[in-house]
Amino acid sequence: MQRDLSINFYSIFKWVIIISFVFYAVFPFLWLVLASLKTNAELLDDPFALPAVFQFKNYTDAMEAAGLGQLIINSLVISTSATFLNILFSSMCAFAIARHTFWGKNVLFLMITAGILVPLNALIIPYFAIINFLNLYDTRLGLILVYCAVGLPVSTFILTEFFKSIPKEIEEASFLDGCNFAARYFKIMLPLALPGLATAGTFQFILCWNEFIYAMLLTSSTDIRTIQFGISYFTNQFFSDYVGMFAAVVISILPSITVFILFQERVINGLTAGSIKG
Amino acid sequence: MKLRKDEVVWLLIFIAPAISLFFLFFILPILFLFVTSFTNWDGISAEFVGFENYSKLLNKKSFIRAITNNLYWCLTAALITVPLALIVALLLAHRSRGWKVFRTVLFIPQVVSSAAIAMLWAAMFNAEYGLVNFMLEFIGFSDFEKYNWLGNVRTANAALIGFSLCYVGYFMVIMLAKTASISDDYYDAANIDGATQFQKDVYITAPLIKSTFFLCIILAVIFNLRQFEYVYLMTAGGPANKTQVLVVYIWNELSVQRLGRGNAAGVIMICIGAALLLTLRKLLKSETYN
Amino acid sequence: MIKSILKFFSVAFISISLTIISTVASAEITINWPSIWVGKDSKTTVIRELVDEFNAANAGAIKVVIEEQTDYDIYAQKLTAQMSTGDLPDVFTVGADLLDIMHRSGKAMDLAPHVNSDSHWNNVYPENTLQSNMMGGQLTNLPYELFVTPVTYNKKLLKAAGYDEFPDNYDDFFKMCEAVTATGKVCTSQMTAKNAWTSMLWFSQALASAGGPDIYEKGLDDPAFVKAFEVMEKMYKYTTSDAIGADAGVSGGHFLNERTAVFMNGPWFIARYTSDGIPGLHENIGVAPAPMLSGGEGAPGGYIGGKQSSLAAGKQSDPAKEEAIVKFLKWLTTPENVARLSYSSGAMFIVKADLPNDMDRLFQEMNAQKGNAPYVAPIFINGIGSLPIASEFPQALSALALGEVTPEGAVEMLKDAE
C-alpha cells in the first residue's frame, strides 16, 4: 500500500512538471503560427486575438518575396557541410585527447575549450580580414569554414566527455587484438559514442542554421545567402512586416526540427535496441 | 593509453585539422583583440594608450553592472535551469508513453532562431497587449494590468531570466542521451529488490549521469556568459543600463567605433570566463571524471 | 558516413566549378551596390526600376548589381569592417554618422574631379551644397536624401478633446495632453528601444526650441539640455504604458491604430499611414512644427531634420570602371529620377527635382512648412557629434522616465558616456 501511494504522488508530480514545461515551450510557437496568419494591422492592434480571415497568403508572399526556397537550400548545404566537418574534426581531436597521454595534452584541451568563452561578436573585423585574405568572401566554403571553426570548442568539449565515459576495457581489448590508432577510432570509438556525436552534431547544425551576423557579413549574393537573411528581409530601419517575418520563421523552423528528429531518433533508438552490457 | 612510437603520426593527423582551424579563427583574432585593446583604435587609426581602456572600463558603472548581471545569469543557469533539466530528463527517462514526443517538443525552442523567440517574448511581456499581463489578470492578479515587465527596473532582469527557462530542453536532451547508455541490469536488480520508481531515479539514474550533469552546468555557465541575442533584442541592456550584459556592452562599443575599448572589454570577458571555468573544474574535478 | 563524405565532396566540387564559371563569363563592367533600399523599404520598387533602366541603356558595357542588405545595423558594421581591412563597395549609401570615418579611411572615391567635368551636378544641387560637403579638398560623398521630422497628429482625436489646431507652445501642449487622456486615448507615442527614435526627435525639437539651432556648439553644459529633458520627463507622463522598452514598431503601431494622438516621424513614413493604418487614418492626419518653449532661443515654425543618406563610391584603380560608376551616380541624381523616387516613396531629396502636383498632401505640407521654417536644426544624434553620447541617450531617457535620475542627472549620464 505504501509503495502504491508514493508511485501515485510521483506520477502526478511527473506529469505536472512535464506538461508545464511543454506548455512553456510550445505556447510561443502556437502564437507564432497564429500571428503569421494575421495582417500587420491586426497584429499591432491585439497580438493574441484570432484573425478575421486566415491570411495564408502571408506564406506564399514570404516564399516569393524573399526567395525562401533558394535560401533554404543554401542553408541546408552550408549547415550540413559545416556540421559534418565540425564533427569529424572535433571527434578526431577529442579521441586523441580523451584516450591518450601526450605532451601538451592538457594545455591543448584547455585552450580549445577556452574558445567557448570568446565573444564572437567582437571578432567581426578579424574574421572579415581573414576571409578576405583567403579570398573566400561571398563563398559557401568561407561560411562553412567559419561555422566549422566556431563550433569546435563546444563540440570538442562535449565529445571529450563522451569519449572519456566509455569504458577503457573495450578499447584495451582491441589494442591487444592489434588494432592501430585509426582502426580504434573508426571501428570502436565512433560507434560507441554515437549519442555524443548526434548530440554535438545537432547543436552544431542548429548553430549554423540560426547564425545571422556572419552570414550577413561574409556573403553578399543571394545564391549564397542563408535562410536567416530571408527572415531579416521583412524588417528594416523603420518598419517591420511582422506577419511576413513570422511566416518566414515558421517555414524556416521545419528543416531544423526534421534534422533533430532524424538524428536523435535513429541513433538513440539503434543504441537502446542492442544495449551495451558491462 | 600510452602512445606507441609509430602512432605519433596518427595522433598528429588527428589533431591537425582542429588545431589549424582553431589557430586561424581563435588564436589569431584573440591576439589581435589583445593587442588592439591597448590602443584607441577606431577602425582607421590607432594610437597606443596603455591601460587607459581597462581603467576607464572598470570605472564605468554600466560595465560593472554588465559583469554582475552576467554572473547573476550564470548562477541562475547553474542553480535553476540545469537542475530543472535534470529533473525533466529523469522523468522522461522512464520512457513512459509518448516520451519521444515530449522530448522533441521540449527541444523545439532551441531550434528556432533567437531573433524570433526574443520578439515573441517581447510581445508577451508588452504592457499594453501582452499575454503575460492578460493571463495574470485572468488568474486574478489585477494589479498587473498594463505592467511593463521589461521596462521596469525591478522586474526586467527577472523577466529575462524567466523566459530563458524554455531552454531547459537543451540540457535535458544531453542528459537524456546519456541515460540511454545505462545498462538495464541495474534496473533489473533494483526491481528484484522492490525499489520504487522514485528510488530508482534518485539512486541509480541520477548518480550514473552525474558526470553529464556537471558537464551541463559548465556549459550553461559559459553560454550565459556569452549571452547576446536575447538581451540585445529584448531590452538592449536597458532600461537605464540595468540589464546590460558583457557581449551587448562590447557590441555597443564596437558600434560607436570605440574598437580599442570594445576589444579591451572582450579581453576582460575572456579572463572572467577563464577564471570561472577553472574554478568550476577544480570544484567539480572529482565528479566529472570517473 | 560514406554518404555524408560523398555529399560534402560533391558540394565542394559544385561550388568551386560555379565560382570558376562565373568569373570567366563577363567582359562587361560590373558595379556592385550593397543597397539598403530593398525588401520592405519604401524606395525599393523605383530603385529597382532605375537600376534596370540603366542596365538596359548600357547593356553589354555596364551592369549594376544590387546586393540586398536587409539589416541596417549589420550593414553599418560591414561597411566599417570594409573601411578597416578591405575595400569599400563600388557604389553605396552612407549615413551621416559614418561620413567622417569613411573620409579618413582614404578608401572612398574622390568625386570632385567629376563635378566639373560636366555641368550636371552643379545644376542639380543647390548652390554651395557640394562645396560645404567637401572634406580636406575632396568630395567623398554626394548628399542625397534628406529628412525633416515635424509633428504628425490625428486631427480627429484632437477635435474630440476640444482642439482644432495643434498648440504652438508646450504649456498649451500639455493641457491638450490632459484633455486627450480624458477622452480615453493616449496623447503621444514614445519609445526608448534601439536609438529611441521618436523620443529622440522630440528631444531634438525641445532642444532647438530652448537653445536655438546652433545649440550643439554650446556644449552639454548649456541649460537648454536640462530644459529639454524636463520636457521629456513630462512627455512620458502622457504616453503608453509600454513606451519604456518599446521600439519603432510598437510606438508607430499605436499611432497607426489610433491609440495615440500625436506622433513624430519623417516623410518616408507617409505611405504607411495608408498601408498599415486603420482605414481613413491618412485623411485625419495633420502636420505641424513642434511647440516652442517659452523663453527659449528657438523661433516658431522651427524644424529639425538633416542628411538622411549620401551616395559614395569606393576608390577604383580602373579608370573605365570609375567612369562607369560616376555615370551611374549621375543617373541616380537626375531631377526626373529623383522626382520619381520622391513621388512613390515620399522621401525628400537635396537634389533639385520637379515634383508633380499630385504629391501626397502630407508631403506637400511638410515641404511647405520646411520652406517657411526659420531653420532646420540637426537632430540630436547627428548634431551632438559624438557616437558614444548619441548611443547613451536611450539609457539616459529610460532612467529619466523611470524616475531614476533627474533631468540634470540625465545630462550627467550623457557626459559620462565619453
Features:
heterotrimer, B: 290 residues, mainly alpha, 14 helices, flat, C: 418 residues, alpha/beta, 5-stranded mixed sheet, globular
Structure description:
- The complex is a heterotrimer of chains A (278), B (290) and C (418).
- Helices cover 75% and strands 1% of the residues of chain A.
- Chain A has 278 residues and is mainly alpha-helical.
- The two termini of chain B are 16 Å apart.
- Chain B is mostly helical.
- Chain C has 418 residues and is α/β, with parallel strands linked by helices.
- In chain C, helix 2 (44-57) packs antiparallel against helix 15, helix 10 crosses helix 11 and helix 11 crosses helix 19 (407-416).
- The longest helix of chain C has 24 residues, at 2-25.
- The model of chain C has no long low-confidence stretch (mean pLDDT 87).
- At the A-B interface, helix 1, helix 4, helix 5, helix 6 and helix 7 of A face helix 1, helix 3, helix 4, helix 5 and helix 8 of B.
Topology:
The complex is a heterotrimer of chains A (278), B (290) and C (418).
Chain A: H1 2-36, H2 40-45, H3 57-65, H4 68-99, H5 105-114, H6 124-133, H7 140-164, H8 168-176, H9 181-192, H10 194-210, H11 213-217, H12 227-232, E1 235-236, E2 239-240, H13 242-273
Antiparallel strand pairs in A: 1-2
Chain B: H1 8-36, H2 52-59, H3 61-92, H4 99-111, H5 114-124, H6 131-139, H7 153-164, H8 168-179, H9 184-192, H10 197-208, H11 210-225, H12 229-234, H13 246-255, H14 259-288
Helix pairs in contact in B: 1-14, 3-8, 3-11, 4-8, 8-11, 11-14, 13-14
Chain C: H1 2-25, E1 29-35, H2 44-57, E2 62-68, H3 72-85, E3 91-95, H4 99-105, H5 112-115, H6 120-124, H7 129-132, E4 142-148, E5 151-154, H8 155-160, H9 170-182, E6 186-188, H10 197-211, H11 223-235, H12 248-256, E7 260-264, H13 270-275, E8 285-288, E9 303-313, H14 319-332, H15 335-345, E10 348-349, H16 361-372, E11 376-377, H17 380-383, H18 387-401, H19 407-416
Parallel strand pairs in C: 1-2, 6-7, 9-11
Antiparallel strand pairs in C: 3-9, 4-9, 4-10, 5-7, 5-8
Helix pairs in contact in C: 2-15, 10-11, 11-19, 18-19
